[in-house]
Design brief:
heterotrimer, B: alpha/beta, Rossmann fold, 2 domains, 6-stranded mixed beta sheet, 20 strands, globular, C: mainly alpha, MetI-like fold
Chain lengths: ~325, ~550, ~280
């Protein structure tokens, strides 16, 4: 087990460092001078020179990269040019919105999608199954941000149950913040739930034909019992694969959905930074996003090893 | 009252019935064998009795267990299965849940059947140490997994055990031990047995009554001794003949020059470690093997699975690379007349000819291109050895790329020649592999091996994947081709009887080394090495 | 091959064909020019002159949908092309060569998987400004590891088959084997994956345009229409219904076509393609 995990962790770490390098060098490779780019054409040479110094642009490339990397490990992501505040603090503030949003969406999507998939698989061929899968088919096709708009139209305008947008910080009013999270989480969760439902159903249906299900029936279980006790665990494997990718899409999705609901999350920070050409801020935020995506794939690998003993490299006969 | 009574049982999917008109009665404690090849419907019969027919199957006729009809409801049927009818399947790796410890799976069987059995006792009964209970299926060997399956089947103290090809996926020696185990268990518990297999010898060893199935229809049934001694159906006669060992034609090899010399060949593998640049311990699949093959000689290499014989074959053919030692493919000044002669059986004439054969030392995949056409390989599995998207004509002709400057008309002629030599018509060349039967595909594989007019053909388990009734024909074909074209063979097999039919010399291999060598008759009569004796002892007695 | 036409496939193809037709027609003709502003007629509901009504600027919605569909298709298609042209050879090479080559390709794949479309789009926009080309590249880059993985997976399951060994014995090198034996046999897997990625590409393009990183005015795309509607949809929901529903219908058609294709070509595909279903 540990050998497998070590291998995966090494892979994760290497990927992260290489990705960080790519981001660093990409934003560095601008035609012309990065400091000039940030300040614009009409900036004074002194301002440009001082920014260059601040960015450490006079140092050789590799040293800049390693300095930056080590600084990040210490939690120092540089200072935002436009807001004159540490990037880490700015991002940290926004993460209080983005991370809970992604988390709720993930949990919701599993809580809705998996049971529906199991139900559809159990009643395979029935009207319920066809109906649920049709719903799932539609769910996959819906852009999450548009769905958010529809939810606002229904729940905020027509029914007036929930706020149409905006956000009060957690410390100020916990329940208001929670209420502000409901619609965005739903908007993110439902298309993913549809995918999970379909994958779960297919995985279970496939598992029904597996040899070990036949053995379980030979021992005295009905098909339903066999699938429930043996099939679901085995069906988890393809589900885990999907979940890893789903998290990447969820992270991307939060960035977009925040726009619909005017949530002060990481997404809005990035877009503002782009329009103001604050590359330091963009760089820091992108690294966080990439780290989140890569980390989720690593966690999936760990879960694989937990679920599947074949990956743990045990005894040989 | 019979324990089990089948009355005109039939199983239909869409289309013609896969099984029809099966009727017999089974008494308590009786051992009943069902013999059939692929497509005979024997597995469907076993599944029908256990109530495990796949979706879409319709069952006709009546099945009565202990005087009562099999229940229709799934729940009652399931409970019956747990407690009175047990089943053991062919492929133990996929039949066990890979994510659950085997002890837990046995415990589940006990819980379902509500008996007082214990996991340790059951493991002991099938000859396994209780420590194995905590293992996962992939950590056990094939034989051990099958014992686990049997232990699970016994948990409910069933009256009837149905075993569907329980040994086909296993090693020769392990097969024997499992069959003995089943016999012992049935004796001890007074259990009835339905043993389904294509292996006549196994059925003859275990069962007192037999039923012969072919294409879903009953060919013959009766007491085992009667059926085997005096078969009434032609098909049964064919099967019995195929199960008997035949002695191959050996012809004079005096004066045959050496063709291939293998010197101290080794192949080490690195176990997977942290990454490809940090491997684990090396393991020797082939360990210092030396032997030689003379022109027109047929040498067999036998051994249990994992002994390294397939790796050795692949290295000789040029698919893999040895890590130590070398091979020399030698023409000398003697070679058969060019072009490919048809030689009178029993005589091989050696003459000088215009074409020069280079002498080549190689280590496997670095076999020089010019020499590649002299060595061919026939693979074991007729289903995987052809690209499903290529017409067989093109597939058979693929090795001709090794001969430069061959005009398309010549290519076609060579392919037709090869295909005719194996007894198939050139008109079939435009068809796709799935349109041929297993036996025909194996013939096509042989044709593909012949198309470059090789001098050495390596055959990896050439008939193991074929139905028993077809094997005799293919073996006869191989002998005939050798006689006609002066081919040398290296035959890889685990089946000692098949080897006796086709080879002049036998090499016994264990864990990468050759442990014994000799002519088949010698080896059979006076085995020297422990492994050879074990292999011979594992053979089931001849039928009738 | 199963010769019976799957109903999903038929419905899916018909739906896709309708939208494709609309999109292609827009190259030659739309009911109104998409940049024709008519403020007097803004926010009109469906009417005989404007079948789908008008938007914020009085532009004809039907024309916008037609032109927008074209943009969406083009962006998604080019992204799929990028993914296939780079990803499939990578995957086949990894499977055919194995060893260090495979290791390298797998690490490259891991690296590319760290860059979902939005992240790449952010980077490109920060450097070069927004545009439809950005969307193509960003979505395309994330398509590469998807196709590489499918191609490699398919090829690996074939690699152990004996006919590959037979081809090697016949003197074929890795390139030839990849081209003549591996590629044709994984083609069906790739086609199914392409329809899935096309559908996902349309959704991704919509998202990118919605946040302003994709198609820019004066061009139009379905996502851009939703962006325009963002500020006023509470008062005029019709402006979101039209483009949103269009997206949903196109994607459903593509997904149905993909499902039908998969069932028709090979039931075994369903299992292997499972892990890539929503990638």
């Amino acid at each position: 087990m540990s050998l497998y995990l070590l291998r995966r962790f090494l892979g994760f770490a290497i990927t992260l460092v290489v990705a960080a390098a790519a981001v660093f060098f990409l934003l560095d490779r601008l035609p012309g001078d990065p400091a000039q780019f940030i300040l614009g054409i009409n900036a004074s040479p002194d301002a440009v020179a001082s920014l260059r110094n601040q960015l450490g642009l006079d140092l050789p490339l590799w040293q800049r990269f390693t300095d930056w990397l080590l600084a990040m490990f210490r939690g120092d992501f540089g200072v935002s040019y436009t807001q004159s505040a540490p990037v880490a603090a700015l991002i940290g503030e926004r993460l209080w919105v983005t991370l809970p949003l992604a988390g709720f969406a993930m949990v919701l999507s599993m809580a809705i999608g998996l049971p529906i998939g199991i139900l559809a698989a159990r009643r395979r061929g029935s009207w319920l199954d066809t109906g649920l899968m049709l719903l799932a088919q539609m769910g996959i096709a819906v852009p999450n941000f548009w769905f958010g708009m529809l939810l606002v139209l229904l729940f905020s305008i027509t029914l007036r149950w929930l706020p149409p947008g905006g956000f009060t910080p957690w410390q100020e009013d916990f329940w208001a913040a929670l209420r502000a999270m409901v619609l965005p989480s739903l908007a993110l969760a439902l298309p993913q739930a549809a995918i999970l439902a379909r994958v779960m159903r297919t995985a279970l249906v496939d598992v029904q034909n597996a040899d070990f299900i036949r053995t379980a029936r030979a021992k005295g279980m009905t098909l339903g019992e066999a699938v429930w006790r043996h099939g679901v665990r085995n069906a988890l494997l393809p589900i885990l694969t999907i979940l890893g990718l789903q998290f990447a899409f969820l992270i991307s999705g939060t960035v977009v959905v925040e726009n619909v609901f005017y949530l002060p999350g990481l997404g809005r920070l990035i877009f503002t930074a782009i329009s103001e050409r604050d590359l330091i801020l963009v760089r820091g935020a992108v690294i966080i996003l990439i780290a989140a995506v890569t980390a989720s794939m690593f966690i999936v690998d760990v879960l694989y090893a937990v679920v599947d003993p074949r990956l743990r490299g045990g005894l040989q006969p | 009252m019979p324990l089990l009574e089948l009355d005109d049982l039939s199983v239909v999917f869409d289309g013609p019935p896969v099984l029809a008109g099966v009727s017999f009665a089974l008494e308590k404690g009786e051992r009943f064998g069902v013999i059939g090849e692929s497509g005979s419907g024997k597995t469907m019969m076993a599944l029908a009795i256990a109530g495990l027919l796949p979706e879409g199957a319709r069952r006709g006729g009546a099945i009565a267990f202990d005087g009562q009809r099999l229940p229709e409801g799934e729940r009652e049927l399931a409970r019956l299965r747990g407690r009175r009818i047990a089943m053991v399947f062919q492929e133990p790796l996929t039949a066990l849940n890979p994510l659950m410890r085997v002890g837990a799976q046995i415990a589940e069987a006990i819980a379902l059947s509500k008996t007082n059995a214990s996991v340790e006792a059951l493991l002991g009964e099938v000859g396994l140490d209780p420590v194995h209970a905590r293992r996962y299926p992939h950590e056990l060997s094939g034989g051990q997994r099958q014992r686990i399956m049997i232990a699970m089947a016994l948990a409910g103290e069933p009256d009837l055990l149905i075993a569907d090809e329980p040994t086909s996926a296993l090693d020769l020696i392990t097969q024997r031990t499992i069959i003995d185990l089943i016999a012992a268990v049935c004796d001890r518990r007074g259990m009835a047995l339905i043993f389904v297999s294509h292996d006549l010898r196994a059925v003859a060893a275990l069962c007192t009554r037999v039923l012969v199935l072919r294409q879903g229809a009953v060919m013959e049934t009766g007491p085992a001794t009667d059926v085997f001694a005096a078969p009434r159906a032609e098909y049964t006669r064919q099967l019995i003949a195929a199960a008997r060992p035949t002695i191959g034609a050996v012809f004079a090899l005096a004066g045959a020059p050496p063709l291939l010399e293998v010197r101290n060949l080794s192949r080490h593998f690195r176990q997977p470690g942290a990454a490809w640049f940090a491997p684990g311990q090396p393991m020797a699949a082939v360990n210092g093997v030396s032997f030689s093959v003379a022109a027109s000689e047929s040498v067999a290499i036998v051994g249990p699975s994992g002994c390294g014989k397939t790796t050795l074959a692949r290295i000789i053919a040029g698919l893999d690379r040895a890590t130590g030692g070398e091979m020399i493919l030698d023409a000398g000044a003697h070679r058969p007349v060019h072009p490919y002669p048809r030689i009178k059986s029993g005589e091989i004439q050696w003459r000088g000819s215009g074409r020069t054969f280079p002498t080549g030392t190689y280590h496997g995949s670095n076999l020089p291109r010019a020499l590649r056409r002299d060595i061919s390989l026939v693979f074991q599995d007729p289903y995987g050895s052809f690209d499903p998207r290529l017409e067989v004509g093109r597939a058979v002709g693929e090795p001709l790329r090794l001969e430069r400057g061959l005009a398309p008309a010549d290519r076609l002629r060579r392919v037709s020649e090869a295909v005719q030599a194996v007894g198939l018509s050139p008109t079939l060349l435009g068809r796709y592999p799935h349109e041929f039967s297993g036996g025909q595909r194996q013939r096509l594989a042989i044709a593909r091996a012949l198309v470059t007019r090789p001098r050495l053909v390596i055959l990896d388990e050439p008939v193991s994947a074929l139905d028993v009734s077809l094997r005799g024909d293919v073996l006869a074909l191989l002998n005939r081709l050798r006689a006609d074209y002066g081919l040398a063979y290296v035959v890889i097999s685990h089946d000692l009887d098949m080897v006796r039919a086709v080879s002049d010399r036998v090499l016994v291999m264990e864990k990468g080394k050759i442990v014994e060598e000799g002519r088949p008759a010698e080896i059979f009569a006076h085995p020297q090495h422990r492994l050879t004796r074990e292999l011979l002892a594992a053979r089931l007695p001849d039928v009738a | 091959m199963n010769r019976r036409w799957h109903p999903s496939l038929v419905i899916g193809l018909v739906g896709t064909a309708i939208f494709l037709a609309l999109a292609l027609t827009s190259l030659l003709w739309t009911p109104y020019p998409i940049d024709q502003i008519d403020l007097a007629r803004k926010f009109a509901g469906p009417s005989p002159e404007h079948w789908l009504g008008t938007d914020f600027f009085g532009r004809d919605m039907l024309s916008l949908v037609m032109a927008g569909t074209l943009t969406s298709f083009v962006v998604a298609a080019i992204a799929v092309a990028i993914g296939m042209v780079i990803g499939v050879p990578l995957g086949l090479i990894a499977a055919a060569w194995g060893g260090p080559v495979e290791w390298l390709v797998l690490r490259v794949n891991d690296f590319l998987f760290a860059f979902p479309a939005i992240i790449t789009a952010i980077l490109i926009t920060a450097l070069f400004g927004p545009g439809a080309t950005n969307a193509m590249i960003a979505i395309g880059i994330f398509n590469i590891p998807v196709f590489a993985r499918v191609a490699r997976g398919g090829a690996l399951s074939l690699k152990s088959l004996d006919y590959i060994g037979a081809a090697r014995l016949a003197g074929m090198g890795n390139w030839e084997i990849s081209l003549r034996h591996l590629l044709p046999n994984v083609a069906s897997l790739l086609i199914v994956q392409a329809t899935i990625q096309l559908a996902l590409g349309i959704l991704a393009e919509a998202g990118l345009s919605y946040v302003g990183l994709g198609t820019q005015p004066p061009a139009t795309s379905l996502g851009l229409m939703l962006k325009d509607a963002q500020s006023i949809f509470l008062l005029h929901p019709w402006l979101t219904y039209v483009p949103g529903l269009s997206i949903v219908l196109i994607v459903i058609s593509l997904n149905l076509a993909g499902d039908g294709l998969r069932d028709m070509l090979d039931p075994r595909l369903k299992r292997e393609g499972l892990a890539n279903a929503a990638a």
